[in-house]
From TrEMBL:
Biased composition, class Pro residues, residue ranges: 35-54, 94-106
PANTHER family assigned: SEC24-RELATED PROTEIN, SECRETORY 24AB, ISOFORM A
Pfam families for the chain: Sec23_BS, Sec23_helical, Sec23_trunk, zf-Sec23_Sec24
Domain Sec23/Sec24 helical: 793-896
Highest taxon, organism lineage: Eukaryota
Name of the protein described by the UniProt record: Protein transport protein Sec24-like At3g07100
DNA repair recorded as keyword: no
Amino acid sequence: MQPNRPGAPGRPPSQQYSPFSLPGSASSTASRPFLPGPTQPMRPEQPPSQPSYPPGTAIQGFSVLSASSTPLAGPEQNYPRETPPVRSNGPVVPFQPSPNLPPPRGGPSSFVHPTLGGPMIGQPMAPPSGSSAVQQIAPTSGPRLPPVPSSASVPMGPPPQAANYMSLGGNFPPANPSSSEYPPGRTSSIPTSGPPMPHSVSQPYQGGQGGQVPFFAPRTSFPSPQLGIPAQQHFPQQGGPLAYPGAVSQPPMLSSYMDAQKARAPPSYPMAVPPAGGVQGLVEEFQSLSVGSVPGSVDPGVDPSLLPRPLDEADLEGTTSSSTYVSNCHPRHLRFTTNAIPNSQSLMARWHLPLGAVVHPLAEAPNGEEIPVVDFGNSGIVRCRRCRTYVNPYVTFTDGGRRWRCNVCSLLNDVAGEYFAPLDVNGRRRDADERPELSKGSVEFVAPTEYMVRPPMPPLYFFLIDVSLSSVRNGMLKVAVETIKSSLDKLPGFPRTQIGFLTFDSALHFYNLKSSLTQPQMMVVADLDDPFVPLPDDLLVNLSDSRHVVEALLDSLPSMFEENTNIESAFGPALKAAFMVMSQLGGKLLIFQSTLPSLGVGRLKLRGDDPRIYGTDKEHTVRIAEDPFYKQMAADLTKYQIGVNLYAFSDRYTDIASLGTLSKYTGGQVYYYPSFHASLYKEKFSHELARDLTRETAWEAVMRIRCGKGVRFTTYHGHFMLRSSDLLALPAVDCDKAFAMQLTLEDTLLTTQTVYFQVALLYTSSSGERRIRVHTMAVPVVSDLGEMYRNADTGAIICLLSRLAIEKTLSHKLEEARHVIQLRTVRSLQEYRNLFAVQHRLAGRLIYPDSLKLLPLYGLALCKSLALRGGFADAHIDERSAAGFNMMIIPIKRLLKLLYPSLGRLDEFLLKGPVMGGDDAKGSLQRLVLSAERLDPRGAFLYDDGFRFVLWLGKVLPAEFIKNLLGVEAANSPDLSKLPVIEQNNELSRKLLATLKALRERDPAFYQHCYLLRQGEQPREGSLLLFNLVEDQIAGTSGYVEWLLQIHRQVQQKG
Ligand SMILES: [Zn+2]
């Protein structure tokens, strides 16, 4: 059990405690700023009548630590099991299991309480990394999977929340016994720059063959996507029709479309068709594609470049709803999938897209648009006494200003004397314009003490760092501690900020950071079965007081473990120890993990990925946590206000699906750096960690969205834990997190003209103030389906759809998730077509509202995204899981950029005009169609998806240019994978770096590492770039043209 310790200074190898000096007494409890009472969070928005929990007893005298190697390990010793505050003395805080909580799945229930009571089942085990299973995830050269018909397709209705998270498998009968068909290996899915590989792959986008699609009676209604389109026509770089059975038998349907009926403004997509009949002032903004209705029909002479594409930044922005509601909050905070609520169930049934909202409560506002802060002082926040809605611009005052009517529930409330103001002739309060809460859609209220059950917590950062061999070897440890050290001054909440560290390999290393010390003391606990926390008072310290000790620790960590050859990871026990240390206050837990957890509770198997289960009903099991430990820990962490951000670095399988569960249910985030090495990715990791540490964070938060009578939110999608049916627990939430939710009608008929929505985020600011951020929005109720479509918001739709699809992959096959995306697109366009096609004689055309012009393209891109694409061979399971976690939290704009990245010609941009630097370099790179056709071998192109850059160098780009731009090595080396972009001593290079910098600054949430890539460099060109050119027909997937054709044909099936 004793690890193979490195001979670090001050750490004799065989002692459990190897302090720099003898640890002193740990008995002080008075110094703790907060009583260790129950950490039930703030009272979430309830009236004060809610029972509060009796405070626990403060920790009682910890006895003096001895340096002996034994005394503390026994059961029920002085402290571990009983004393840590959260568990012991007071009654255990009753925690309402939310629907998001899994029932313990037959496992030991030892984690229900934060106490570490009961021995864990952790046995030291087993093969560290490097054993045979690794081969499973390495690309091999076997053929790809054969097509597997999908089983029943289930439209993504609003399943109960639990279903989104808790389908842990096992419910599905083993299907498709033909697994022997599947060859063991996988092919690199990576497309080449030459003709596409004629994969005999399961077709990702072919809709529901075998599915039960009510709309389309015959099974053939979702024909194969392989339309055998004459590829050379639009995609000359690719070969002909794919060689899979049946594909070539399809007649080409068309070579191009659009008869561009020029009508309105000059968009770059097919033109709107002016309504033919002026009945009822049909000013429907719809577009149409003239796609032949008869297979084989050709409509020559039309340019596919006219298809709708988001080539303009403005396409990513939300549309503000009608000018009727001028007091609505900005769409950066709240967007609906349609800004028109259907007035009846029957109307809603004809809206085949998700009905719901995307909330981004802490979205960063540009300078000058900061959210006003309102402090009602002693008089208290003005809220409706029945539904608890916060006063907002849509409440109406009556009775000379003495009463106000709640816009959400219509109750008449009294106006308190101190809040009274007379009304003007229009019945508006005379002071409305001076009061942000009566004139602005977004305000922040300062919450009085009744919104607290304990003093506001200080910002708290606890670092749990893997210091095993791989963390040292890949440079992670060094970069992490350097970044933490350089961020210390910028951590929010000075001078209250708290900080602590725990490192681990096969043992746990605690650090006493008491301010009276000159050097940190390290304590090693090797008992993983029953870990305990030595010295609980000084492991977490005030940063200002202990700054010098913290810095000394950070300075010494890399050298302490420099020689560490330990390859084990006692992650689970370390996590539990961190939890015990933090449980008194809560805070942010940052985990840095380089290996698969191998020791103690929560150890994970090298289950890897398995080609044989793809296409079967067990397929999803690799995408969910295997061990219930992770979900249970997440539930416990959330309960004690701890949010987890996971940084994972391994170049081997680390089971991101399991580890990421910790972030998923604690409102956190997963950062994944596959094949990390500091020499290459230091900047990316360092930037993203620094952002995480310094961005404004809302602590111990809860969020609720209220809505008017007759409508109701049914499901929520993102990273959080539901505390009750509609209260999202968010231990630490920041400006980079968005949440999606679905909505349904409760009544058969809505009689109001408007439905009001109000998002309220109750949180503790880093400065220690309890606040409530409130966003209010009014949305009109409509009785006309056309209105719903006209007011659709494609960005919000895609965001919600992406989250539904990703959740579906956790209980279904990838193919089924993709199918739903296609199905919903088709149904919605079909419904729209029924509205307008006949009266405008557009029978043979694909018509769609202007608001949804990008829906098919984004739907396609979603199906091709890393989280949803292909099958076994198309993404490493860890990368797929990480991508899924990421897509569950990112706001709309970032998602759209990820789905349809920008591609621009860089060499011309850099060469033309005066050489600029700094901000001038923002002069934008013209965005190009995402197709390999646009990659000119004479040029250099920059691809940017918001998470990475790819700088593609054409084959015949002059070597001199490359040398100037990137240096001699880049010009000569055949392998660019290890080359960083470094400034050369010339203007061209400086302009490149300025351009990259400017692009990065546009959205600082992530740092785009710049990958260099030479045309034809395999297999990197495929994985880095070609596969992400979503308009191409590549690796067995549909291109944009084929996709539209499929959709059109399906729309035509029954109209
Ligand atoms: Zn009300």
